[in-house]
Amino acid sequence: MQAQPLGVFDSGVGGLTVVRAIRRALPAESLEYLGDTARLPYGSKSPETVARYSLACARFLLGRGVKLLVVACNTASAHALGPLRAAFSVPVIGAVEPGAKSALAATRSGRVGVLGTLGTIRSGAYEAALAALDAGVRVSVHACPLLVPLAEEGWTDDEITRAIARRYLGELAAKDPAIDTIVLGCTHYPILAPVLERVAAEVFGRELRLVDSATAMAAEVAAVLAATGGATQAGGTGRLACHVTDASRIDELAPRFLGEPLAAHDLVELAL
Ligand code: DGL
Predict the structure, then answer these.
(1) 10 Å Cβ neighbour count for 256?
(2) C-alpha of residue 235 to centroid of ligand 1, in Å
(3) 162 within domain boundaries
(4) Is there a single domain that holds both residue 81 and residue 109?
(5) Residues 204 and 235 in one domain
(6) Position in ligand 1 atom list of the atom nearest CA 14
(7) Residues 189 and 233 in one domain
(8) Half-sphere exposure (CA, 13 Å, Cβ side) for 110?
(9) Residue 245, domain CATH
(10) Which terminus of the chain is more solvent-facing, meaning fewer CB atoms within 10 Å of its CB: N or C?
(11) From ligand 1's centre to the CA of 233, what distance in Å?
(12) Distance between CA 75 and CA 83 in Å, rounded?
């Protein structure tokens, strides 16, 4: 088991922010990444469709011999974690609980905001995860469907992005002006963190803490590998194999999320 790779999937390239965090925390582990770019976005699809797509992604990665599965997509984590854990015997790590834990570690006021896709927000997954960890925390959530395309376009410091962020964060502030911590509950959002942080300070009139799931997910992967004795014994840097279901723009988009050029990728067909 130790020599097997870790499997990571997302609806697209956003999950490469999680790959980046895992590679930083566990550089010797090899990774198999699948971005279901042909079917992105998951955020606007029904829970049943997202669960079906997620099972297909997982089957592909299990076929590549992965020892652990990371669901690097908040929407898939919100809709499909139960079915994935029921279908496969490898450990399955989602994005929502690690994001909720990061938020609880960061908040002082116990008032937390969550931004995510329509699917993640409608699922109530963050409210449930935060309530399970701390019944006293007050959670306000807001769907931000326009942030994914802005992140993909690389409009990370742009007048239009600032205007859209001002509107979303203003709507969140109207739900609870006492929020002190915001969860970036979507794998695409970390590359927008600087602009969201600046606009949040403007809208709320003070600095807020912004947290995402990536670092906490990497820590959870490390903890599971340590507990199961599954960590690689190899030294050096592990291999990253990147698979996508549609390769259009991948060479342009992937480096934005991975933080380095993508060495190579291949195109896969998923049977649904
Ligand atoms: N990766 C998705 C998530 O984290 C966002 C993109 C999509 O809607 O598919 O929720």
Answers:
(1) 18
(2) 33
(3) yes
(4) no
(5) no
(6) 1
(7) no
(8) 7
(9) 3.40.50.1860
(10) C
(11) 33
(12) 14
